[in-house]
Amino acid sequence: MDVTVRVYRADRRSRLKVLGLIAVMLACGVLEVVINDVPGWLAAILITVLAIVDGVWALSLWRTRTVVRADGLAVVGVARTRTWAWHDIRDLVVETQSSPPRRLIRLHDVRGRKTTLPYVTEAHLPDLHALRPH
């Protein structure tokens, strides 16, 4: 039995750099609210909203990944994980987005839906096709 699992996600160093940037942005937002002598109730709302937005951004960076196994594929997001068995996948396609120009790997399922595979690049496609049963 083959237990090969491939996980595609941002590397640890990149995640830590962006988390540092998120922390600096949160600190700047809080400082801006405090310096401008915003009323207490409004300051609490602004800081809460800023903390929630930055928290969701950080969580998405930490959780988002594509997991490929012999039995199928999963896309892990902030709030949910979507899974497909190989027989539910019609094709894996490289699509070009024009603004800004970049190439995305999209999963096309048998129902006609498209899903972008986070952190999967063209270089990873041979590995994905190798794990897919024939």
Task: Characterise the protein shown here.
- This protein is an alpha+beta fold.
- It has two domains: 5-63; 66-131, no CATH class.
- It has helices at residues 12-35, 40-63, 125-131, and strands at residues 5-8, 65-69, 72-76, 81-85, 89-97, 102-109, 114-116.
- The strands form two sheets. The protein has a four-stranded antiparallel beta sheet, with no helix packed on it. Strands 5-6-7 form a three-stranded antiparallel beta sheet, with no helix packed on it.
- α1 runs antiparallel to α2 (40-63).
- It comes from Streptomyces justiciae.
- Residues 63-130 form the Low molecular weight protein antigen 6 PH domain.
Number of DSSP strand runs: 7
Q: Shape, please? A: elongated
The major sheet is characterized as:
4 strands, antiparallel
Mean pLDDT: 88
Number of domains: 2
Q: Measured on Cα atoms, how large is the radius of gyration?
A: 20 Å
Provide the β-strand percentage band.
Answer: 25-35%
Helix count, per DSSP?
3
Q: Uncertain runs with pLDDT below 50, 5 residues or more?
A: none
N to C succession of SSEs: EHHEEEEEEH
Structure class: alpha+beta
- Biggest sheet strand order reads 1-2-3-4
| Intertermini distance | 16 Å
The helix content, as a percent range, equals: 40-55%
